[in-house]
Design a protein that fits this description.
Blueprint: H1 2-12, H2 35-52, E1 65-73, E2 82-91, E3 97-102, E4 110-128, E5 130-131, E6 134-135, E7 138-162, E8 165-187, H3 194-206, H4 208-231
Antiparallel strand pairs: 1-2, 2-4, 3-4, 4-7, 5-6, 7-8
Helix pairs in contact: 1-2, 1-4
Protein name: Circadian clock-controlled protein
GO cellular component, one term: extracellular space
Keywords: Biological rhythms, Signal
């Protein structure tokens, strides 16, 4: 997703000696005084290819972007309300705009800022504990809508010469997300018990920002690890 996009921008710099340039790459020259603007345009050119995936470089589609598991403790105490999200699918990552891009200088990392108007998340949901004095152990579907997403990315890359050409490796990648409006809901839980479902959704509606704050550190860490792994394939 966001980090992977920036890695692609850096990768553009090592493709310029290729005999045949793939259609998904819009070339930029190191000598271009507007290099960062060129790279922004190159990233925007990549959007439809990221949505579909690029099999020749083993880059999977980001629609949806797949994640594994997140666990959250949302209330305290021995019977605190806890949820687990599995088989997470994230939609909307390819609809990004690069607002700022600063390439690495010496020991300084590259930096970028991207915006995405909306991200949708669907996952399988399990819960345990007590919620608003009601036992709330169950399973079902979890959905989230994140409006107004801003992603700030920092990272370092290294380049190594090999017989097959110049290879890039992502050494570090840090991601920070800011989300203007989270909307969270669950369905098909507690054997479709209407009262428990409504109580859970009321909690998620009234505490959406708090749930997001609990979710965000894990989400950012997992995304950074996923992006680094994909980029280094």
């Amino acid at each position: 997703m966001m980090g992977k996009l920036i890695v692609c921008a850096v990768a553009l710099l090592v493709t310029m000696a290729a005999a045949q340039v793939p259609e998904y790459i819009k070339q930029c020259k190191r000598s271009d005084p507007e290099l960062e603007t060129c790279l922004k345009n190159s990233l925007h050119h990549l959007k439809p290819y990221l949505a579909k995936g690029i099999p020749e470089i083993k880059l999977p589609s980001v629609e949806p972007f797949i994640m594994d598991t997140l666990s959250l403790q949302l209330t305290g105490g021995p019977q605190g309300y806890r949820i687990n999200l599995k088989n997470m699918e994230v939609f909307g990552a390819s609809n990004f705009t690069v607002k700022a891009l600063k390439l690495s200088e010496g020991s300084k990392p590259f930096e970028a800022r991207l915006t995405i108007p909306k991200l949708l998340i669907h996952a399988k949901y399990t819960s345990s504990g007590v919620l608003i004095i009601i036992p709330a152990s169950g399973a079902g579907d979890f959905d989230a809508v994140f409006d107004g997403v801003t992603a700030d990315v920092k990272g370092r890359v290294s380049f190594n010469e090999k017989p097959t050409g110049t290879h890039m490796r992502v050494e570090t990648l840090d991601l920070n997300l800011a989300i203007k409006k989270p909307r969270l809901s669950v369905s098909k839980i507690f054997n479709n018990n209407r009262i428990l479902t409504e109580a859970t959704n009321l909690f998620l509606k009234e505490n959406g920002n708090e749930v997001l704050r609990a979710l965000q550190p894990q989400l950012q860490k997992k995304l950074s690890a996923e992006f680094s792994g994909i980029a280094n394939q």
